[in-house]
Amino acid sequence: MKFAWIDVRAVPVEHREGVIDAAIHAKVHGVLSDDAALLATLPPTVAGVLTGEGTAGIKVADVADEDQLSALKHQADKNIAGWVHVRDDRTLKLACAAAVDLPYTVVEFADPTKIPLEIVLAAADKSPGALICVCADLEEASIVVDVLERGSEGILLAPKDAGEVFALVRMLEAQSPNLALATLTVDRIEHHGLGDRVCVDTCSHFGEDEGILVGSYSTGFILCCSETHPLPYMPTRPFRVNAGALHSYVLGPDNRTNYLSELGSGSTVLAVNADGKTRRVVVGRAKLESRPLLTITAHSADGVIVSLTVQDDWHVRVLGPGAKVRNVTELQLGDELLGYIATDQRHVGIPIGEFCRES
Question: pLDDT exceeding 90 applies to what percent of the chain?
């Protein structure tokens, strides 16, 4: 779990009390100040992080050269944080060394590129210490937490007001939880004529056991395979899922759904693997084209009916238990597929506990 430090030194006086109250209420990891007396008023659930004279839970010291780093490294007190201003190759190397050697390392970058952060993250990958990155605003924080698919352990932000404290904590808490996938048994395959289907092209490379969850009913989805597996007559497209007819639901982050027809550049969906592990992926484009269609009808162990309409072609694939790849035109009654059973109906993609029957 990522954590937040709130820097109150530059917070306007009229907002400071509200920001500190918000930090306590939101249970941020630490509040940073140069005022030891202010930090002494914090409850034990929030660490005081001190840049000035005095004592606090965590003491911050500038690291401008190897001698300062060595002095901090050999201190008996392990509640110590080194602050490195990265502005050139020398200070970048110093930040890498600090991230390896110190319990906490705060890095502040002079340039907007995230390449130096990538280098520090790589250098400290196996280190037990925590890396905290100074961010100018919430937008930069949202980028930093995903650098190299892991980001820094902590974010240091000087919020404008209490609202930004809560917004930062919500962002850091946002995660893509695992899903409990169900085994579905095929009951019926029906071939249709022409209809419109959607290929979802993402900005990410899918794994061989990954796809997206798509279904005609809001309570049941089938795991549609990505085009990462070799096909005759055409190259693999590891960013693509030939997902289904345009009316279909696709499962996205935060238990929200969209119709495939609604997806476009910049939308987000969930990539899901055969073990139920999920991650957010950004849609680069959605391709809608007319193709022959077929409908797969299946049921879960407790009798929930799941339906999926896809392109009627051998190269369209879904995943079965154990990440077995199944071509949709070769499915037989009794074959097993992987899917997800949702308990809620949907209204504009939002889960809602109302009566609704789909058929």
Answer: 71
